[in-house]
Amino acid sequence: MMKLKELLHAIPVLQVIGPLEVEVDTIAFDSRQVQQGTLFVAVRGVHTDGHLFVGKAVEGKAVAVVVEELPEHTDDAVTYVQVSDSAYALGVLAANFYGNPSQELKLVGVTGTNGKTTVATLLYNLFRQLGYHVGLLSTVENRIGEKVVPATHTTPDPVALNKLMRQMVDDGCDYCFMEVSSHAIVQQRIVGLKFAGGIFTNITHDHLDFHKTFENYIKAKKKFFDDLDRYAFALTNVDDRNGNVMLQNTVAHRKTYGLHNMADFKAKVLESHFDGMLLQIDSHDLWVKLVGGFNAYNLLAVYSAAILLEQETSKVLVALSEISGAEGRFETVRSKNGVVGIVDYAHTPDAVENVLETIKNLRHEGQQIITVLGCGGDRDKTKRPEMANVALKYSDKLIITSDNPRTEDPLQIIKDMEAGVPVEKKKNTFSIADRREAIRAACHLASPGDIVLVAGKGHEKYQEINGVRHHFDDREELEKTFNEQ
Predict the structure, then answer these.
(1) CB-CB contact of 171 with 133 (8 Å)
(2) In 171-323, which ranges are continuous DSSP H helix?
(3) Average pLDDT over residues 448-477
(4) Are 314 and 321 in contact (CB under 8 A)?
(5) What is the pTM for the complete model shown?
(6) Cβ atoms of 323 and 316 closer than 8 Å
(7) 429-431 and 451-455: which strand pairing?
(8) Do 361 and 367 touch, CB atoms closer than 8 A?
(9) DSSP letter string over 259-291?
(10) How far is 68 from 436, CA to CA, in rounded Å?
């Protein structure tokens, strides 16, 4: 419980109607969560405007409301606070309400198109290996020490974020590693948080349904680094053509990592196999359990961040050689007759290309690559033909199927993907809307020694169809089919 006056600290207020000494028990931006003692914040969202529900919040016994526009009629029992940006205000209010927990942790954010989950999870695993109590906020799951808290968004809303971090602090966590999505940056979900550092992995074609243009997408990622303070570090992938763009205006300590260009932290892949690879990081050789050039970048980012967080180099290298990656990222399953199944979350053209390029470099002569791939519904449609085209660049056979169709017709999504299939590759392309049947077909097409990649869903244990989530696990389906053969 806090007084409204205290909660408004560091928020530019335009006007107040009513007393500021009222006690606030909870903060909500969804009027359905309002109860007696709630401060309701009217936020303008993508699908609706919280200002439309101010009346409902007042009916629900809210003690105060924060708005950009005051309603025509006010209630004497409620305090009204007018601000210029209620989304910004929500972030600061949430941080103040939970005692600014990010200031009591070393919080590191990871942003980029691909690799966010892997880098954040590897950092969590690494620092636990080093003996620290650690928190994790990721697409796959949130963790407070060893306790798992299910994740619903890549980056939670400000109230949920600060609540989780307060629990981390109270549980004794020293560090928190979190994914920072471009949506969260634009929607100001991370406002009010103090970051010890930020990591940029890469940026490729994705989320244009939300950002509209690639330039806007880049600006969203860049804003995260622009907002870091001078005590934080800004670590960027210098091999990505937009890597240095992220550092242009930041006052944070600028650091770079890369495999090819001059960088503060360097790595090289010496050997690569299906069960791991030999890396050279800053002149130190180590064997790691992850595979592929994209994971060499992920591991280098993790190593670099650990050194910037003042960890001992030798201990970091030993721990890196012992830890595993995130669930659903290049997970392998083998059949009795030697077919290699790989489950990966790759759901952008660049991620699909990275995974398939890795597989192609690892396969032996005569091994076929058979890929099962779909695209999500109600998301960026422009990448659909590109996804199919990229997959066929490396695959001997492609089965186009459903991912999470959501409210779209799966057959239309498949049709959009088929537009990217070159004429000469059509005979090696099959369309099967049922994902389970698509996986089964891929396994039956495979001969001993062949490689079956099931891409797009990775760690997800569901398939979303018309607003309903049905249990579905790519790894489970692969294992079931392999056991039947």
Answers:
(1) yes
(2) 182-186, 208-211, 214-226, 293-308, 313-322
(3) 95
(4) no
(5) 0.84
(6) no
(7) unpaired
(8) no
(9) SSS--SEEEEEEEEETTEEEEEETTEEEEES--
(10) 48
